[in-house]
Design a protein that fits this description.
The protein is an alpha/beta fold. The protein folds into two domains: 177 residues, P-loop containing nucleotide triphosphate hydrolases (Rossmann fold, 3-Layer(aba) Sandwich); 67 residues, no CATH class. Strand 4 and strand 5 form a beta hairpin.
Length: 255
């Protein structure tokens, strides 16, 4: 069953009196139970698609359907993990998470219970009262993930969530995201993630959609039918990775 349908999505900006086409005839669905990755060259409009799905950006033509109905603006069943962490520096870890719950009208006692639940889930117990300046990059992103999960969305959007982290921290967080996804302890139904890291996409995704350079259109898609946990040294993993790289290369060469 499709939770989300993108149909004939086009987006053109006007910049310095000229039209700049960012997205061109984008069509895909996000199915329930699916971890879907969007990959493509820098500036191809991947993050723009996430903002359209979240309901934040509505300057487009075409259709975005959530459960066969026009996508709400914003969509309360969607939350996002940002590349830049986007934490409020003068609030503690717990307060950063409670803030999004307060915006949803959740009562104070329930806010505390929910915030502590997700702080523990991402491995930050005992850091409830820490401020962002006291946290490493990996810990800040754990807060970002906990905050996104705390509103218990049906769709989790992830915008290059590991790209600002060192290699080992990124690998650790990817593993934790996979574990949370596989354990099915969350009300989460689907994940839509943007990344420029092809190996990361093969490690995480059930399906990968490859976008061309701007104006972005879909070059193709690749199914990742590999059991988890995945090993990047496996021949099957390498074959899928090569296929994704070939599509990206074709895009850059204009083929």
């Amino acid at each position: 069953m499709a939770l989300l349908d993108i149909k004939n999505l086009n987006l053109t900006f006007r910049e310095n009196g000229k039209e700049l086409t960012v997205l061109e005839n984008i069509n895909f669905s996000l199915n329930e139970g699916e971890f879907l990755c969007l990959v493509g060259p820098s500036g191809s409009g991947k993050s723009t698609i996430l903002r359209i799905v979240s309901g934040i950006l509505n300057q487009y033509t075409g259709e975005v359907l959530y459960k066969d109905q026009p996508n709400p603006q914003p969509n309360p069943n969607v939350s996002m993990v940002f590349q830049s962490f986007a934490l409020i520096p003068w609030l503690t870890v717990q307060e950063n998470i409670e803030l999004v719950l307060e915006a949803r009208g959740i009562n104070p006692r329930q806010r505390v219970r929910t915030a502590l639940k997700y702080i523990d889930m991402v491995g930050l117990d005992s850091f409830e009262d820490a401020y962002p300046r006291e946290l490493s990059g990996g810990m800040k992103q754990r807060v970002g993930i906990a905050r996104a999960l705390a509103v218990e969305p049906e769709i989790l959007l992830m915008d290059e969530p590991f790209s600002a982290l060192d290699v080992l921290t990124a690998a650790d967080l990817r593993e934790q995201v996979v574990n949370l996804w596989q354990e099915k302890k969350l009300p989460l139904k689907s994940v839509l993630m943007v990344t420029h890291n092809m190996e990361e996409a093969v490690f995480l995704a059930d399906r990968i959609i490859v976008l061309s350079a701007r104006p972005a259109h879909i070059m193709g898609e690749v199914s990742v039918d590999l059991p988890r946990p995945r090993d990047s040294r496996d021949k099957a993993f390498e074959d899928i990775l090569d296929k994704v790289y070939s599509m990206i290369l074709s895009s850059r060469l204009g083929k």
